[in-house]
Automatic annotation (TrEMBL):
Domain Rap1a immunity protein: 78-146
Record carries keyword tRNA-binding: no
Pfam name, any one: Rap1a
Name of the protein: Rap1a/Tai family immunity protein
Keywords for the protein's UniProt record, in alphabetical order: Signal
Keyword Signal: yes
Lineage: Bacteria, Pseudomonadati, Pseudomonadota, Betaproteobacteria, Burkholderiales
InterPro entries xrefs: Rap1a
Signal peptide: 1-32
Length: 152
């Protein structure tokens, strides 16, 4: 074998480089698997954000910008509610006309949110382990199917 510049046989260098590339791709693959869709929420995470925050679990001190732990919990509840509503609205806007069809004659937009929220809160723990966006779409499909899928 012919040695390369640093005195190693060229086949060994190629094997080492190939091994290094394989190792790097495995590490990258493992990192990608850990970070798959971190922005997606389960149904349980959505429902948890719809519930009331226990004030005793809120980190709070006298130096806090909110005057009491109870008000801090209410502030978190309000933010969580806005977050879940925004998540619902994004899923709704992305899937309307594709997965389900809204009719202004049949329902008002607020009724859609109420229907989804109530249905999520009534789901079993097993159902809530699934992807929250998928659960939202399923509720919308059941309540507002497109004309081609409407049952007579």
């Amino acid at each position: 074998m012919k040695p390369d510049r640093v005195g190693c046989p060229s086949k060994v260098t190629r094997c080492a480089l190939t091994g290094l590339l394989v190792l790097l791709s495995l590490v990258e693959s493992a990192n990608a698997q850990r970070a798959i869709r971190p922005w997606r929420l389960t149904g349980a995470q959505l429902v948890q954000r719809l519930g009331n925050v226990d004030p005793s679990t809120v980190p709070w001190s006298a130096q806090s910008s909110l005057p009491s732990r109870a008000l801090a919990a209410q502030w978190i509840d309000a933010n969580n509610g806005h977050f879940v509503l925004g998540y619902f609205q994004a899923v709704r806007d992305l899937t309307e006309g594709k997965s389900w069809c809204w009719s202004p004659v049949e329902t008002k937009p607020d009724e859609m949110w109420d229907a989804v929220r109530i249905r999520l809160q009534r789901m079993t723990d097993a159902q809530l382990k699934r992807d929250g966006a998928d659960l939202i779409v399923e509720v919308l499909q059941e309540r507002w199917p497109c004309a081609s899928r409407r049952k007579p």
